Amino acid sequence: MSAAEVRRHDDADVLVGDVASALLERIEAAQARGETPDIGLTGGSIAEELHRELARRAPDSSVDWSRVAFWWGDERFVAADSPDRNAGQARESLLDHVAVDPARVHEVPASDQVAAAEEAAEAYAAALREHGSGTFEVLMLGIGPDGHCASMFPGHPALDVRDAVAVAVHDSPKPPPDRVSLTFEAMNRSRAVWFIASGEGKAEAVARALAPEGTVAETPARGVRGAETVWWLDEAAASAL
Ligand SMILES: O=C1O[C@H](COP(=O)(O)O)[C@@H](O)[C@H](O)[C@H]1O
């Protein structure tokens, strides 16, 4: 595992463009090796911009979208048609615009499909065990102003869950309160973890995540490391480094 790398960009547009290029290249390279890469998507504001950029560039790329497996680092436990679903956002902005194989789009079950977030977490973990390659080629994550990533919130019991792939999260400080998150163990099984952050509101959390001292309990993003870890930042998000 190497030290985290920081890539700074002038603004959000340049940031999104660079992440989109890098992701497309990474998927193309994996497919050229004969793999069907597991890609972990994130929710949040900058992710939506990224998804739109990927959809815009898709026709000019040589990615075979039917040979990409899509997963999520976390999901809000709400109804399938809720605008709060990370999967719904990704479908609208990307997945509905490229020729994915529906069998390779692995959504976390919604609150009108299973009885409880625990059941959704178990089903999602089972799907990852059965259909995943064991390693995310790229797992993309946002970071909240409080330092949360996926649905791992500061001081929350989910941070301590071991020997599990996914965990139910209740009483999330950010609405909606019920969620499902990959555990640190599952997230850390990644060739590349890419944190993507834009805006001054993220600056302090980014600085805490990258500081030499600090705890995962205070800043959960500190707990995620891939074989390669990259922080993709715009200048505003990098301003407290
Ligand atoms: O609730 C969530 O928040 C984080 C960060 O979102 P942002 O809008 O502050 O960038 C996101 O990464 C996560 O997937 C989502 O469920």
Short overview:
This protein has 241 residues and is an alpha/beta fold. It has helices spanning 12-32, 45-57, 86-93, 117-131, 184-187, 203-210; strands at 5-9, 38-41, 69-72, 74-76, 138-141, 166-169, 179-182, 192-197, 228-234.
Description:
This protein has a single domain (5-231), classed as Rossmann fold. The mean pLDDT is 97. The chain has helices spanning 12-32, 45-57, 86-93, 117-131, 184-187, 203-210; strands spanning 5-9, 38-41, 69-72, 74-76, 138-141, 166-169, 179-182, 192-197, 228-234. It has six helices and nine strands. The chain has a six-stranded parallel β-sheet with strand order 1-9-8-5-2-3, with helices on one face. The protein has a three-stranded antiparallel β-sheet with strand order 4-7-6. Helices cover 29% and strands 17% of the residues. Strand 8 (192-197), helix 6 and strand 9 (228-234) form a beta-alpha-beta unit. The protein is an alpha/beta fold. Ligand LXAUTJHC is lined by residues 42-46, 73-74, 76, 86, 141-142, 144, 151, 174. Hydrolysis of 6-phosphogluconolactone to 6-phosphogluconate. It catalyses: 6-phospho-D-glucono-1,5-lactone + H2O = 6-phospho-D-gluconate + H(+).
- How many angstroms separate the termini? 22 Å
Task: Using the coordinates above, name the CATH class.
Answer: Alpha Beta
Secondary-structure-derived class: alpha/beta
Shape: globular
Spatial sequence of strands, sheet with the most strands: 1-9-8-5-2-3
Indicate the CATH architecture: 3-Layer(aba) Sandwich
- The structural domain count equals 1
Largest sheet: 6 strands, parallel
